[in-house]
Amino acid sequence: MTIMHVPGSKSVTARALFLAAAAGGTTVLRRPLVSDDTEGFAEGLIALGYRVERGPEAWTIEGRPEGPAVAEAEVFCRDGATTARFLPALVAAGRGVFRFDASAQMRRRPLGPLTRALRELGVDLTHEGEEGHHPLTVRAGGIKGGRITLDAGLSSQFLTALLLVGPLTSEGLEITVTDLVSAPYVEITLAMMRGFGVEVRREGDAFVVPARPYTAVAGYAVEPDASTASYPLAAAALTGNSVTIPGLGSGAMQGDVRFAEVLRRMGADVDLSHDAVTVTGTGTLRGLTVNMRDISDTVPTLAAIAPFADGPVRIEDVHNIRVKECDRLEACAENLRRLGIEVGTGRDWIEIRPGTPRLAEIACHGDHRIAMSFAVAGLRTPGVTLDDPGCVKKTFPGFHEALAGLRAEWGLG
Ligand SMILES: O=C(O)C1=C[C@@H](OP(=O)(O)O)[C@@H](O)[C@H](O)C1
Ligand SMILES: C=C(OP(=O)(O)O)C(=O)O
Q1: Confidence band (pLDDT; 50, 70, 90) for 153?
Q2: Which atom in ligand 2 lies closest to the alpha carbon of residue 321?
Q3: Ligand number with the minimum distance to the CA of 154
Q4: How far, in Å, from the CA of 224 to the mean position of ligand 1?
Q5: Contact 244, 1 (CB under 8 A)
Q6: Could you tell me if 238 and 378 are in contact, meaning their C-beta atoms sit under 8 angstroms apart?
Q7: How far apart are CA 249 and CA 364, in angstroms?
Q8: Best exposed site among 164, 166, 203, 331 by fewest CB in 10 Å?
Q9: 368-377 and 226-239 helices cross at what angle (nearest 10)?
Q10: Residue 34 CB contacts under 8 Å (≥ 6 apart), including other chains
Q11: Rounded Cα–Cα distance for residues 219 and 89 (Å)
Q12: Which protein residue's CA is at the shortest distance from atom 6 of ligand 1?
């Protein structure tokens, strides 16, 4: 039996950094994700004057409930949407002039609903170029609070950013949400806010956030990343092998652990205990129709292994993955076609026909998930190459070595 330890959750690490920075006291994060996204988040905090010490096993953050320690700063968010969406909200509750910019990829991604909501709350925020996109400047003087309505139909991160900053306002926030994708990520936010001492009340479609100080957590353990786990789990299902991911099971906060259920529906044996998941490939992969609105980071993982199923695989209700690191519906379709597979897409769906992939080079579009997903499919199609293997650094710098380890252990040549 193969055991694979996957790196810490990006979503949990990013939220923990925000919460620790905003809390009174010192927080120690154990086993944080160390990758481009989370280093970018930590360096953003450092540019804002927060003290973040990064050791090999733990990161220590000195909280500053009053906000950034500098009156002016420039923050470069790289490719990280958590950084690019959460940090402008954090600084808005403090005082000073803060300019944010991001990579070309991240500049293309939307944050209009969030910046409009912040403006409605009285925050002085200006976009340098296109409205609702980076770069932007926040001239911060604190947030009074109040009631707002938010459309989170393109990204739940708009809601998470507002929830996280809610306790730092002087009167609290009431956020009524009209549409929401990726709902399990909001549950992570609420659970983690609770862990740092703030309880959010739900009233129908509204989230009522009290103005209340966060408290530091002496030792906060980051659970392994469930989206990252989808690669070894899919690899086991695809090749008829078995892999166990310790530290990630039914007790995890992340919705993406449910990807294992998709593999079960396809015919894999899945053993989900409270704190571990094991997937064993059975030699059968069935086609299916699946709604992935809640777990859309794992769409590329499923799309890449789909040709090996015995019937069509149709993935629905994922329009928002067109505004991720790339247009993931089109990137999946393009690469499947390069492999000689028949595929159709619509506004919010993709359907993949069974087939035998031929050798091809995968166009990664700078998207870690396209790279990792098609590398997994490559376990059954020797010679598949990636045009940008390095883009995995966004969330899993050691991905290629880890996959080579599985290949060797399973004797896949
Ligand atoms: O809040 C988070 O940590 C995330 C929310 C999701 O984004 P959307 O809400 O934009 O779908 C997910 O895709 C992303 O990888 C991480
Ligand atoms: C969409 C993703 O990242 P983010 O939105 O946090 O940049 C992802 O990791 O798949």
Answers
A1: very high
A2: 1
A3: 1
A4: 16
A5: yes
A6: no
A7: 30
A8: 203
A9: 20
A10: 7, 8, 54, 397
A11: 25
A12: 182
Contact 101, 135 (CB under 8 A): yes
325 CA from centroid of ligand 2 (Å): 7
* CA–CA separation, 362 and 60 (whole Å): 39
Q: For the packed helices 112-120 and 81-92, what is the interaxial angle rounded to 10 degrees?
A: 0
Q: For Cα atoms 352, 182, 248, give the angle at the middle one, nearest 5 degrees.
A: 90
Q: What is the DSSP letter of 44?
A: H
Cα-to-chain-centroid distance, residue 394: 10
How many CB atoms sit inside 10 A of residue 130's CB?
A: 12
The yes-or-no verdict on residue 252 having pLDDT over 90 is: yes
Task: Tell me the two tokens of residue 111.
Answer: 């944050």
Nearest Cα residue to 187 out of 167, 159, 210, 168 = 159
Give 112's pLDDT tier (boundaries 50, 70, 90).
very high
Tokens 């507002």 sit at which residue?
162
Q: How far is CA 22 from the centre of its chain?
A: 21
Helix (H) or strand (E) holding 180: strand 173-180
CA of 81 from ligand 2 middle (Å) equals 6
Q: Is 314 annotated as a binding residue?
A: no
pLDDT at res. 413: 75
**Is residue 1's pLDDT more than 90?**
no
Q: Is 157 close to ligand 1, i.e. is its CB under 6 Å away?
A: yes
The protein residue whose alpha carbon is closest to atom 1 in ligand 1 is 157
Which tokens in the block code for residue 83?
A: 């950084």
Q: Please, what are the domains in the chain?
A: 2-221 (3.65.10.10), 226-408 (3.65.10.10)
Tell me how far apart the alpha carbons of residues 35 and 275 are, in angstroms, rounded to a whole number.
Answer: 24
* Average pLDDT value for residue range 310-321: 98
Beta carbon of 156 within 6 Å of any ligand 1 atom: yes
> Residue 152's pLDDT is what?
98
CA of 241 to the centre of ligand 1 (A): 30
Termini Cα distance of the chain: 18
Instruction: Give 378's DSSP letter.
Output: T
Radius of gyration of the chain (CA): 21
For a ligand 1 pocket test, name from 106, 154, 156, 317 the mutation site with the most ligand atoms within 8 angstroms of its C-beta: 156
DSSP H helices in 98-225: 104-108, 112-120, 157-165, 183-195
State mean pLDDT over 257-274: 98
Residue type, 227: S
